[in-house]
Amino acid sequence: MKVAVLGAGVVGVATAHALAERGHEVHVYDRRSDVASDTSASTAGLIAPGHSYAWASPSAPTMLFRSLLGASTSIRVRPRADVELARWGVRFLRECTASRARSNTLAKLRLARYSQQLMDELAARENLEYCQTRNGVLYLYRDEAELERAQINSQLLRDHGQRQDVLGPEEIAAAEPALRHGTATFAGAIHDRTDGTGDPHRFSVGLAEECRRLGVRFHLGTSVVRLETDGAAITSAVTDQGEVRADAFVLAAGAASALVARSIGLRLPVYPAKGYTLTATVKDPDRAPVVGGIDEKTLVAWSRFGDELRMSATAEFVGYDRSHSPADYAGIVDAGNELFPGAVDWDTARYRTGLRPMTPDGPPMIGLGRHDNLYFNTGHGHVGWTMAVGSARVLADLVDERRPDIDPTPYSPISSRRHPSARDA
Question: What is the pLDDT of residues 152-172, one digit of tens each?
């Protein structure tokens, strides 16, 4: 079967590889000139089933309300006339119950754990090097009450296979000696020993080479303008380089998936959350972290990629706006100086924004939509890097009409809960 994969981020590359291993003729299209050079290159680098919590939770509405009033919160919404955001927001609020948060979190966790296992196997089999670590991730809490709440919440993850230890201040310093140099004080931390870190761009570049060995053709610098349909199936994808015909199409373009889908009248429940990321050169290795982590007060996250430190923060709902200014990174720099003073050379910092494709409930959309040959692999949100390889395997199984190793129902693009309108995917 000839399959056109629309999108060459880490999810698209992993999807192409999974399909090519099954013997399909695979073509990948992306507007960028390199694979995984957009949002996939703008993540904190955490491979973190231990952070699979659904954003839609009983506490989320209060945070969003405070953001609308101008408070500084980790999830921010700027008041603006945006029908798509309003529609997405209504669905998000419907998911903010304790029972929905639990089921959505477990759906994310199952896929994340499955994906992490497959990623490790794939990396070993193909000899992929991407600055990977498996020494866990630290989730740091400055407030005792927040730590206690985190322990209660994390019980759900521990009950389903995550190895998580609660650390006191001295144990935190033993796990990450670089924090001894910082001025931040912590009540404690949850050390998820099954989590890790890695560079998704390096992983994708290496995996793309394996894809080419399997016969995959990458059409980079090619923008998908729209889809064409006869009503029952997709007949072609129109690009700025011409028309693409295939037996099946996989929409794996991250946040842009919703824009492409609109060309055939589909309203995907996927909306971009802009994140801010910087990468700077390490100047003092002893002061730079070797364990990935998140400061849960500021939600600044970090990973060490060899002689570089990646730091990321914020989820801002501002549509497809990618603009940024130095002020947007001030909080990240302040946290870096507080946590790891003297560790990096800020003059070398490279600044990026990325648009995380968020679904209202949290789990991604994987599988066949309402057209006979249009598959979706999008909406992975803040854990797309963690979920990429597992999502690709599930998608390939569904294309081949095989039963996936994990239940694909929570990720179905045509769930009635996700799509109350018949014109949705």
Answer: 999 999 999 999 999 999 999
Question: What pLDDT digit, counting tens, does each position of 166-209 carry?
Answer: 999 999 999 999 999 999 999 999 999 999 999 999 999 999 99
Is there a contact between 35 and 204 (Cβ–Cβ < 8 Å)? yes
Tell me which residue of 62, 159, 66, 68 sits closest to 105, measured CA to CA: 159
Whether the full predicted model's pTM is greater than 0.90, yes or no, is yes
Burial-class residue 170 by CB neighbours within 10 Å (0-12, 13-18, 19+): exposed
CA separation, residue 275 to residues 10, 21, 70, 364, 399 (Å): 17, 33, 18, 18, 32
Q: How confident is the model at residue 70 (pLDDT cuts 50, 70, 90)?
A: low
